[in-house]
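Here is an idea for our session: we take a single protein and study its fold together. To get us started, please write out a protein record for me. Start from the sequence, derive the backbone structure tokens from it, and show both lines together. Go ahead whenever you are ready, and we will take it from there:
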Amino acid sequence: MTQDALRLRRETIVREHMADEIDHAWDKVLATFPHPHYEIIATGVVHDGRPDVEHYYTTSRQTFPDQRNTLLSLRHIDDGIVVEFVLEGTQLGPLGPLPATGRPFSCQMTAFFLFDGETLVCERIYSDVLTIVRQLLGGMTSTEALNALIAAAKAKAA
């Protein structure tokens, strides 16, 4: 396969993957990689294998049922594609210790779609969790949002 053909194949996979996530077409999303693997860098959470990734989809969409992404840019790298996008949604379910707020969020993020040849092997997502939490808590500063999260976690543990 030529380099141009490989890039086109990878780009098609990534664009379909992102579109199918918006549509909650989980079987199609999962079909984009033989062993689903997500790394959420901001939280340190890794979702590895189909059952774990399916659980991630289910729980994240219970929290943000209208979650969607808007592609800003797509760049090819030697072993994959880097995508900048805006993730948006409305919190209608709990997010860890934070109960549903009914508030929307919008956050610019970056995802590395890593490939072995033409096979997607990992989606690694970089984001700013405090930007999202601050919006969910009604425009608090980052420090106020962090303190509110700590208080919610302590209350839940008690």
